[in-house]
From TrEMBL, chains A, B:
The keyword Transmembrane helix does not apply. InterPro entries: 3-oxoacid_CoA-transf_A (IPR012792), CoA_trans_fam_I (IPR004165), CoA_transf_BS (IPR004163), NagB/RpiA_transferase-like (IPR037171). This is Putative succinyl-CoA:3-ketoacid coenzyme A transferase subunit A. It comes from the Bacteria.
Automatic annotation (TrEMBL), chains C, D:
It holds the Pfam family CoA_trans. Keywords: Transferase. GO terms for molecular function: succinyl-CoA:3-oxo-acid CoA-transferase activity. It comes from Cognatishimia activa. InterPro entries: 3-oxoacid_CoA-transf_B, CoA_trans_fam_I, NagB/RpiA_transferase-like. It comes from the Bacteria. PANTHER family: KETOACID-COENZYME A TRANSFERASE, SUCCINYL-COA:3-KETOACID COENZYME A TRANSFERASE SUBUNIT B-RELATED. Belongs to the 3-oxoacid CoA-transferase subunit B family. This is Putative succinyl-CoA:3-ketoacid coenzyme A transferase subunit B. The lineage of its organism: Bacteria, Pseudomonadati, Pseudomonadota, Alphaproteobacteria, Rhodobacterales. It is an enzyme of class 2 (transferase). Its EC number is 2.8.3.5.
Amino acid sequence: MQKVFANATEALDGLLEDGMLIAAGGFGLCGIPELLLDAIKAAGTKDLTFASNNAGVDDFGIGILLQTKQVKKMMSSYVGENAEFMRQYLSGELELEFNPQGTLAERMRAGGAGIPGFYTQTGVGTVIAEGKDVKSWNGKDYILEEGIFADLSIVKAWKADETGNAIFRKTARNFNVPAAKCGKVCVLEVEEIVPTGSLDPDAIHLPGIYVNRIIQGDHEKRIEQRTTRPREEA
Amino acid sequence: MQKVFANATEALDGLLEDGMLIAAGGFGLCGIPELLLDAIKAAGTKDLTFASNNAGVDDFGIGILLQTKQVKKMMSSYVGENAEFMRQYLSGELELEFNPQGTLAERMRAGGAGIPGFYTQTGVGTVIAEGKDVKSWNGKDYILEEGIFADLSIVKAWKADETGNAIFRKTARNFNVPAAKCGKVCVLEVEEIVPTGSLDPDAIHLPGIYVNRIIQGDHEKRIEQRTTRPREEA
Amino acid sequence: MAWDRNQMAARAAQELEDGMYVNLGIGIPTLVANYVGDKDITLQSENGMLGMGPFPIEGDEDADLINAGKQTITELDRTAYFDSAESFAMIRGGKIAAAILGAMEVAENGDLANWMIPGKLVKGMGGAMDLVAGVGRVIVVMDHANKHGESKLLKECTLPLTGKGVVDRIITNFGVLDVVEGGLKIVEVADGVTEDELRAATEATIVN
Amino acid sequence: MAWDRNQMAARAAQELEDGMYVNLGIGIPTLVANYVGDKDITLQSENGMLGMGPFPIEGDEDADLINAGKQTITELDRTAYFDSAESFAMIRGGKIAAAILGAMEVAENGDLANWMIPGKLVKGMGGAMDLVAGVGRVIVVMDHANKHGESKLLKECTLPLTGKGVVDRIITNFGVLDVVEGGLKIVEVADGVTEDELRAATEATIVN
């Protein structure tokens, strides 16, 4: 079973459809599937809904698909870094469904785990609870949140073997793991494909069963907020 | 904050109470908290309820606490290897709540994640569904299962650092991770405590935040079914 | 006449396709691994492993490496380990393409009973209920009749269920049957068995 | 008169005890890390890290290592990384002893508003709703009054809530107040502020 594809365009061949729901990994610009987003832009697929914690910036991340107006709706927790996003949202061109960050992560995890709904205290008494089922345990209210079942997952890891077993590096893991699990099909981009057997089987973050197609490529890995200490402090 | 204790008895000091609910890791006899079970036997704590996939064998694992009649109730998925268990169960001395294995694991994971209930298709149309809330998504029924919130977690890992960051070896990980997370207090036994900083931070299976007390000791690691190929096949 | 255990396992192995992730139950299903040949099949063991290898060479047993039947096993170059919550997340989430399981009874509507005989010692369902509820395709491999010669393919199950309407295909010593609208459909008859013999041995409704 | 940002952060740091796992919000809460001294505190960053270290030395920035404010940071010897689902599992599960957060408004019943001003640009709640619902203790650090000189400690919040009845303690430039039955209770008055000044600057009911 060949999972390795030559490039992002080939890896997405036959998988893109107007109006589909895509779960994307990444937090801010950290660990985002840069190459797959570029290929979706090139493919011109329209009316996309993205389940993604953030919406990128104007010229990087999902922001590049906002500029081409390929996105109909975002399911996100924080979209503050993106002027084009705000313009489209305020003009009514773009739908927005805010999710508390942990609820969004858990909804993806639940979808991947075959769990259509779960109860959480997050958002009780806020606008997030409006219209949602409520149930009490020990006198406390919890709201019902639903699993996200995406048509496609696009995620980015550090390394993967040819069977799709993948590892992430530092905080670039973030939403990539739950996003990968909740799609009918998952396409993974990595910095390096390594021979099967070269990753420690005890240290796999995303088992290959979740990964349908893999590509390798160069990543820009842009830094959003470069904060440092002066060298003399060291 | 000192998490390392000298031995299992000291690590459990002040934590044991008659009638408490204990979540225990392990699958069969693989990865079970041998040292902590011995210490609970020595402490003589009574009327215990265990959330544990299995009940050990007559003279190893939770079986040793059945012999001393310290266990009131088991929440398990498979208890077939234990004659004393069957004797007590059939005589009405021992309560038994069967959980499908994945439901048990998810109930522990949910308890640790602050999720009091979740819906699953597992068990729909079977005795497991009796008395449980049902909800439909896309024409399919799902039953409501509840998170397990244990008073104490006892688990076994391979190595941990002094802050409790722990790693497991091969299939000995099993229920140890979800069991560790669902207790108010978690005591961890390991084969080796290593200096903080010596484990790869990308490869931690159980972050130290889940671990309150740690002990190191020698483990028997008994094999339940020794199955092999003859050497000449190699 | 009829298939033996190994022939049933070999027939079940034909159900598996390149690239599949598969869970094999204990008993005859375990033998299926011997017949996958060149196909790229990855075996899941629900205690926390993908890429299950064969039994270890004598002396190489590792107490930390067992399968869901608690037998010592080995790893492969593709192996990944994970915890039980993650293992059943992938099962419940439909990532396992097929499970091949034994059964005590199967009903013509796909109901499966394979975990409990009331009045006998009760061992528990283990992961069977999760598997039949979650995997893509449930294939049952079992003898066509019980030791009293009675059909195990029934109009209705008499034993407590493992899952309702979950079975897709049944492979017995007499042949292969699919669960379809209205009953079971004969897909294949075993060597040395006639279709009439198969029908006569089956309590469940057989549809054409 | 009154505390400055750093004094407020230093006062907030006194809330932290040895062994605590803590989440710090952006703004003044971030400064709290500078005042923990010898205490054994482990900082969680909700994008997937326990054991957050300081900003990197110039030139050592790593695009794969950021905090929840998207700033480059470093790791410590105790650091563990995990995914976002796991990160919020530990937050929702009550494993984080305390969160120190900024606020736009706090009400006397512990309601907190810190994510949205209707009619202004809406950025989103990020992880704030999960934090206030899940952590053991919610400590708010904020100016006592807004830029118009109006109290931010209110009888009722006017802005959309982040959480209902979630705040335990409020640290402002004027002092420290706890949310108790019936209103807020003064715990401490800032240097150079009188209790009368604090009361006068507070819309919320103050109870004794």
